[in-house]
Amino acid sequence: MKEQEKLLPPNRYKELLRKVDLDQINLVECSAKLRRERFVVKELTVIITDKAKIELVKDNSANILHTYSLIATKGSKRDYALKINCTFVVILSSSEVLTEEFLTTYIEINLKMITWPYFREFVQSISSRMNIPSLTLPFIKTP
After folding, report:
1. Which end of the chain has the lower number of beta carbons within 10 A, N or C?
2. DSSP letters for 23-73
3. pLDDT for 44-75, tens place per residue?
4. What is the pLDDT of residues 99-131, one digit of tens each?
5. Domains annotated on the chain, with CATH
6. Taking the model in full, what pTM does it have?
7. What DSSP letter does each residue of 3-16 carry, written as one string?
8. Helix, strand or coil for residue 81?
C-alpha cells in the first residue's frame, strides 16, 4: 500500500486533530561529532534526513519518536566534517482513539512543523559550543 493511501481525508483529519493535545516534546537522545580538520565552511554540503516512529501507549495516547540527522561533508557521508543526530519524543493524547491512519497523517502534515524549531535551535547551539561558525537552518516551508 502506498503511503498516500494511508492518509486520512483532510476534513476527517482536521476533525480528529481538534481532539488531540500535544502534551510534551522532549529531547531523548543526541550526539554530535566534529572533525575539525575537515571543517571548511565554503566547501561543505549539509544533508539533513529525518524519520519518525510511532509508539502507541494506550488507545488514546501515543509517543512519536522523531529523529533528525545532519551531515556536513564535502564528499561522501562517510567523509563528514560534522555529524549531528537528535531524537525528540512528541507525546500526544486524545479524547478519541489514535488510529494508525491519523498518526501517519499527523507525521506527514504536522510533525516536522512541531519538531523542526527544536532541531534548528539544537544545531545552532551545539555548533556554537563547538566553536565553529554557528549553523542556522532554514525555516520549514509549507507546501
Report:
1. C
2. EEEEEEEEEEEE-GGG--GGG-EEEEEEEEEEEEEETTEEEEEEEEEEEEE
3. 999 999 999 999 998 899 999 999 999 999 98
4. 999 999 999 999 999 999 999 999 999 999 999
5. 20-129 (3.10.420.10)
6. 0.90
7. GGGGSPPHHHHHHH
8. strand
